[in-house]
Design a protein that fits this description.
Length: 154
């Protein structure tokens, strides 16, 4: 990062990861093109890893088979300082490696944690896990490097 004065602390980076509902994951794509898609995510403070859910097949999984190193980027909603007009945004970039979770109980546990970010009640979470739990595929990202910064859009 060039502008060190704008750097976020690791604690602030984690706070953004925990509050952001989704981010963009970039993969090594086909024919030299990058491939980036939005994904819902959950940062687990217990192990410091990111978790994602999705289908059991598709291009992202095909690409991960070839190269599991990815970039995942999130940003918060931003804020405007009193008396100013410019939006201030905190963004976090994580570089790391992604793999599939194979332990079905761990998949369901992490799926519940992720779902709690989106569903209003625990009953809604359990209903969704009951309905789709057998079909869900969870990916886990081990973060090798994480940087964050506060950008002022003026």
């Amino acid at each position: 990062m060039r502008r060190f004065r704008q750097a976020l602390s690791e604690e602030d980076c984690v706070a953004v990861l925990q509050s952001a509902p989704r981010g963009i994951m970039a993969f090594h794509g086909e024919n030299g093109y990058p491939y980036a898609i939005p994904l819902n995510q959950y940062y687990d403070p217990e192990d410091g890893k990111l978790y994602f859910h999705g289908a059991k097949q598709g291009l992202k999984l095909d690409l991960l088979e070839k190269e599991n190193k990815v970039c995942f980027t999130v940003m918060d909603e931003g804020f405007v300082k009193e008396g100013e007009w410019a939006l201030n945004i905190r963004s976090v970039v994580c570089l790391g490696q992604v793999e599939a979770l194979t332990d079905h109980e761990k998949v369901l546990e992490q799926c519940r944690k992720l779902a709690r970010k989106f569903y209003p009640t625990e009953k809604d979470v359990e209903d969704e896990v009951e309905k789709a739990g057998s079909r869900v595929h969870m990916l886990v990202m081990t973060i090798d490097r994480m940087t964050g910064k506060l950008v002022n859009e003026s």
